[in-house]
Structures are given as C-alpha cells and as structure tokens.
Amino acid sequence: MSRAQTRSYDGGKDRFLIPYSPELTDFGRYFGNRRPVTVEIGFGMGFATAVIAGQNPENNYLGIEVFRAGVGKLLWEIEKRDLTNIRIIERDAVEVFANMAGPESFAAVHVFFPDPWPKKRHHKRRLIKRPFTALLASRLKPGGCLYVVTDWAEYGEFALAELGATPGLENPYGGFAPRRDWRPLTKFEQKGLDKNHAIRELLFVKSM
What we know:
By secondary structure, the protein is α/β, with parallel strands linked by helices. 38% of the residues lie in helices and 20% in strands.
C-alpha cells in the first residue's frame, strides 16, 4: 500500500468498512437509510465504483474486495469526492453472499473484469459459474440486474452460458449486451483495448 492508501485506510475504515459476519446483516443500518443497494464484487482500485456512486447519490453502493491496497484506494476516492453512499466489506465475495446477505437483498450486482483464469485447469476458480451464479440470483430483488464485463472473449462465452443456465435469470438481449454508457472507462479496460481485446458485456435480469 502507498502512504496515501494507508492513510485513507486508517482514517476511513471505522466509518466506511462493514465488518465481516457469518450471520445475516442489515446493510441499511450501516448506510443509515433504506435506499437500494448495488454490490460491486472485486472493485480493484475502486475508480469505477466511486464514479458511479458519485453520479447516483440516491442509491447505495457496497464494494467487496479482498486486497487491502484496493480498499485503501477506494477510501481515498471516497475522501477526495466527499462520497457518503459507499460501504466496503474486505472479504471474499462468496462468503459475503452466502452468509451476510439474505434473499432479495440487492437491486443490482456488478462484476467488472473478474480474473479470467484462462488455463482450462483453472476454470474451476472462475467467479461467474454455477452454482455461485444461482446464489447471486437469489440475492437480487425481482427485476434486479446482474451486470458482468470482461475483456477475455472465451470467458465471456463461458459466463454467458453459465448465466443463461441459471434459474431465475433472464437475458433481455439474447446474447451479449451493448455497453452501458454510464460505466466509466478504467485504466485496466483501456489496457485491454490497447491489446485489441474485445469487451464482452453481459446483462441479466432477475425474474419478476
């Protein structure tokens, strides 16, 4: 962690971090309101999270990340932008969704550029696969969106098939979705574009 990330982490953790618990959690208590909550899994350095939250102050945003440097960077973004509608859980997302979140907890789930684990023997480590996609679907409110973006074409096809086979999720596009114009372009995505990686967008909706 850089000095700035360490300072932001130490200064913001008590206000913005939600401690992990193996029991169901009332997230509204930590936000201080009952506004809709969007979850971002694996937010990296948190730039997209901060931009989206700043553009939508009427919504709450919950970021899940295991790497403390990324948590510190998002806390720095929160401080710089004077954001109040973000909270963070520093934990593995599978544990958070399985233990802390009850059914129909979230209005949306964002997963931007998850690790593609490109080698076939590592595919079992991929995040967007069954049965975890069924757990994600169960935590979405009816009409809620699961939005996944990858710059790894094969992973995009893999995730499309896994989500398409997940009960309770519907694909309004029948295939890949068009780019959401509200999603900011990050340095990571630009590096992929510079390497001529095709960006795959997946948008699935929880059945009503």
